[in-house]
Amino acid sequence: MRAVIATEPGGPEVLTVAELPDPEAGPGEVVLDVAAAGLNRADLLQRMGFYPPPPGASDVMGMECSGTVAAVGPDVEGWSVGDRACALLAGGGYATKVAVPAGQLMPIPDGVDLVTAAALPEVACTVWSNVFMVAGLQPGEAFLVHGGAGGIGTMAIQLASELGAKVFTTGGTAEKLAACAALGADVTINYRDEDFVEVIREVTDGRGVDVILDNMGAKYLGRNVDTLATEGRLVIIGMQGGTRAELDINALLRKRGAIIATTLRSRPTAEKSAICASVVEHVWPLVAEGLVQPIVHGTMPLAEARAAHALMESGDHMGKILLTT
Ligand SMILES: NC(=O)c1ccc[n+]([C@@H]2O[C@H](COP(=O)([O-])OP(=O)(O)OC[C@H]3O[C@@H](n4cnc5c(N)ncnc54)[C@H](OP(=O)(O)O)[C@@H]3O)[C@@H](O)[C@H]2O)c1
């Protein structure tokens, strides 16, 4: 198979296409002929040598893909050669073939084409598991997602809005914030020249928001806690603003607040499979009805992985970047 590998830790220039042995479908696994792979920020960290794949996972980058079933291993039920699917991966997506635990394979929602389906697994599984399964966002509650124009943000805005929450989001340009509003965000805040704590305090009459999905980590920790409503839940999924910060425990106690931090990639296959099943049950019908849409910034061939990484690093994209085989 062809796969994108990093020859050494470094910038996008270390990425190159190599010939590697085809993966085989082990017990409980399926091999996909990959149509497209989605880029994730974790791929940038992996390329730089800061985020090795979990034990047993492929060294090849790529945490999600879409494709056609090419082989079915022992003990797999419900999938046949030729079926089209998308998949949540621990690695290996930037390749023409990948082996996937069958539980992490999902059917493609009606109305979504094979390539575009690669934009869905990471954002749908991350947002659904964190915002709904873990933080339990309820209709009528207030929800803040930072970085609303990113891959995660565009899915979070649509899902939360569709399921009846009031949605606040932050973003870096007026153009991106306008796009967030079009996706369903009720209140948009430019993080470059506005203080989200003040804006939310004003809009909510001092109440704050019930759930926050945070990509910034350390940089926003204190301000996120300040923005939580009583019994609010802060879910941290990213470290774009660093990993170490001071926390005023008293501020959290007074709100009876919760801080949760998770990563999808390192979870055991059984947990990821349960999340995929829940996404297929709850999110796919909304996608099939066109109420929640995959937002794709653009697609590039696998051979242009360097340019795709450079684009994600520039932050000029909105939604997902895909690599096609
Ligand atoms: N823990 C997990 O399981 C998990 C899974 C998937 C993703 N993630 C994390 O989730 C985050 C988002 O991923 P993604 O795929 O959506 O990446 P992405 O498409 O590159 O989006 C990154 C977002 O960060 C925003 N941002 C940059 N600086 C900001 C600031 N100062 N304040 C608020 N937002 C800011 C950007 O906003 P502008 O473009 O408007 O500047 C952009 O929307 C990443 O940190 C990623 O590692 C975690």
Write structural notes for this entry.
It is a single chain. With 325 residues, this protein is an alpha/beta fold. It has helices at 41-47, 121-134, 151-162, 174-183, 196-203, 221-227, 249-255, 269-282, 284-288, 305-314; strands at 2-6, 15-19, 29-38, 64-72, 84-88, 97-101, 105-107, 142-145, 166-171, 187-190, 209-214, 228-236, 258-261, 296-301, 320-324. It folds into two domains: 2-120 and 278-324, Quinone Oxidoreductase, Chain A, domain 1 (Alpha-Beta Complex); 124-261, Rossmann fold (3-Layer(aba) Sandwich), CATH 3.40.50. Strands 3, 4, 5, 6, 7, 14 and 15 form a seven-stranded mixed β-sheet that branches. The longest helix has 14 residues, at 121-134. The N and C termini lie close together (11 Å). The chain binds NADP nicotinamide-adenine-dinucleotide phosphate. NADP nicotinamide-adenine-dinucleotide phosphate (NAP) is lined by residues 40-42, 122, 126, 146-147, 149-153, 170-172, 176, 191, 215-216, 237-238, 240, 262-264, 312, 315. NADP nicotinamide-adenine-dinucleotide phosphate binds at residues 40-42, 122, 126, 146-147, 149-153, 170-172, 176, 191, 215-216, 237-238, 240, 262-264, 312, 315.
